Each structure stands twice: as structure tokens, then as C-alpha cells.
Amino acid sequence: MPDIGISPIIVAQEEGYFTEQNLNLELILFKSAKDQDVASQIRQLNSAISDLLAVYFLNSNGLKVKAVSVIESCFLLFAVKNSRITGLEDLENVEMGLSFNTVIEYVVDTIISGKEVNVRKVSVPQILIRMKLLRIGQLPTAFLPDPWRRF
């Protein structure tokens, strides 16, 4: 998935570090967490960069997986250009694109918990689609991983 956490692995592969160690690595980039979870469930993956919620859900569905390292990620709330959204209070009844049952939804729920704001969550699992909908104005807000702030 498009996430800054994968960067060291891509660089290591490009620099030939895995080959030097006689490791055969095939990187598969998924467009959504759901696609990656399905690949894990049908045992197409030996390992994955994911969130702890995915580890929980995969284990609860009978696939024995474990987290072996932690990568810190940053998520940001984006709004369409020229938006009047400047704070949480401006999100009342505003649609927000995110991926359901992921750490992104958990972060959104945590941020708005205890606040008197009703965000209308819209499931858009694929990050690139979420960004495109935001860019063309079909989605007023979206919650995305940090690297997307540059676009």
C-alpha cells in the first residue's frame, strides 16, 4: 500500500541488499488494506506491512499472524482547496473519505471522541481513489497517510 513505512524496503531492494544476503523478495503493492488482507487470508503473503488492527482481524479469522516490528506513521486530514474547514467543529455532517476497519478509522474515531461533531464517514478503501475524489471535489475531506500531503 502507498505508505511511507515501505520506503526502506523499496530502497533496500533497489540497492540489491536482499540479493547480497541471498534473500528472494517479491514486493507486492496493494491499493487498499482490504486487498492486502484478502491476500493474507488466502495465504499469498509470507509477511506484510500493515496495522495492528489487521493483525487482530486476521487472527480472529483463524489465520495465525503476529506483529514483529513497529513503524510509526502519521495521518493527516485533508480538505478540498478553498475549503472553509479550519477545525473539528467545521466537520459537522461533512463527508470524510477513509478506509473502514483500519487504523485510519480508529485514529479518526479517537480524534472526534468526546467532541460534539458528527462526521459522515464514507468508505473509500483505495488511497489513490480517495485522493482523486478529494482533488476533483467529489469528497470534501479525506484522511490519508502522511506522504500524500505533498500532492
TrEMBL record:
InterPro entries documented for this protein: SsuA/THI5 (IPR015168)
Organism taxonomic ancestry: Bacteria, Bacillati, Bacillota, Clostridia, Halanaerobiales
Domain of life: Bacteria
Stretches assigned to the SsuA/THI5-like domain: 6-124
SUPFAM superfamilies registered for this protein in UniProt: Periplasmic binding protein-like II (SSF53850)
Gene3D superfamilies on file: Periplasmic binding protein-like II (3.40.190.10)
Protein name per UniProt: SsuA/THI5-like domain-containing protein
Pfam families xref list: NMT1
